[in-house]
Amino acid sequence: MDLEQLKKGIDLDGDSGNDPKVVPEWMDHERFRRGQGFFVRHMSTALFALHVSITAGFGAQRIIEPIAFNKKSDTGPKARLRYIKTFIHAALWHLQDVWDETTLAHRSIVTVRKIHKAVREGIEAKHGGTKRFVTQYDMALVQVGFIGATITYPREFGINCTREELEDYVFCWRGLGYLLGIQDEYNICSGGYEQAYRVSKQVENEVVYRGLLAPPPDFEPLANAYMAGSNIRVRFTLFTKESLIYYASSFNGQSLPWLKCTWLDYGRVMLYKFFTSLFRWAPGFERFMNYLMMRVYEKFSCLIEKELAKFSMLSKCPN
Predict the structure, then answer these.
(1) Nearest 10 degrees: CA dihedral of 49, 40, 147, 52?
(2) Could you count the other beta carbons within 10 Å of the beta carbon of residue 50?
(3) Structural element, H or E, at residue 309
(4) What does the alpha-carbon distance between residue 56 and residue 25 come to, in Å, rounded to a whole number?
(5) Per DSSP, what are the bridge partners of residue 13?
């Protein structure tokens, strides 16, 4: 599998139509749980990697169009709520048994598929059916957004792990991709770690980086709204799109002509590097940050329960 093969799914519905209650034949539950355990052990670093990926991903036209259409994150408060829910959904999928239809995690997966369907139908109707959105290709890009940074730059994000642990994490996301409606031929994790790594690097270089060279019109307002929502209850602005994108681009020496960092932004980048070093070399610090992340998860998980209840009621309404 490579990026060109993924692009063949650009006109295919992003939901395969598979039944999330049916476990695929290739599923190894023990290995899947080991992959979940990888996330749990590195929750704070994996979520920081996702945070960086979301920021850079605003530069990709196919990713940002549905986000802009949805109008759920075009202001700081709306972005804060939307992405807290995103982080809680992601945590749920690793903390509970997503294959058990009675769990909140399983219902979360089903609800996310419904959200994707609603956005797909809405934006395609807006374009008069002339262009497909939230396709199999787009879902593969989203999958890269969730795990690409973690599996391609584990050390840079402060993760100490073995190749086998990354293999298990990729296998876990093969299962999560299946549950999210991604066909196996467009699931970047279907061929193991090497395939997921290779495709993630291709997306980084050929989709995200190229998009950031000339960002789409919605990049500036949505990235700024996301930053406004990310910096909460802190006098010092910890995150800016400039510092996060500079941090990400520094991993492979990429440069963006428009990216102008202030001395404060460079200070933020140094702070990110300092904290990721602590994550990597001070296990106690990572455990403490994971503890804080779990407290955040417990505090805001009620948002997901309300969202699931809302979509459950909508699904019972007549068409």
Answers:
(1) -10
(2) 22
(3) helix 283-316
(4) 36
(5) 135
Measure Cα distances from 246 to 64, 217, 319 in Å: 20, 20, 47
- DSSP-derived letter for residue 135 is B
- pTM, 2 dp: 0.93
Nearest Cα residue to 158 out of 44, 256, 298: 44
Rg (CA), the chain: 19
How many CB atoms sit inside 10 A of residue 48's CB?
Answer: 22
**What span, in angstroms and rounded, lies between the C-alpha atoms of 5 and 191?**
13
Query: Which CA distances in Å does 205 have to 14, 126, 146, 248, 265?
Result: 23, 30, 16, 12, 23
Tokens of 183: 């066909």
CA distance 68 to 63: 9
Pick out the chain residues at pLDDT < 50.
Answer: 314-319
Give the whole-angstrom CA distance, residue 162 versus residue 295.
28
CA distance 76 to 288: 28
Helix, coil or strand: residue 13: strand
Torsion angles phi and psi, residue 51, rounded to 5? -60, -45
DSSP secondary structure letter of residue 285: H
Task: Output the pLDDT for position 311.
Answer: 64
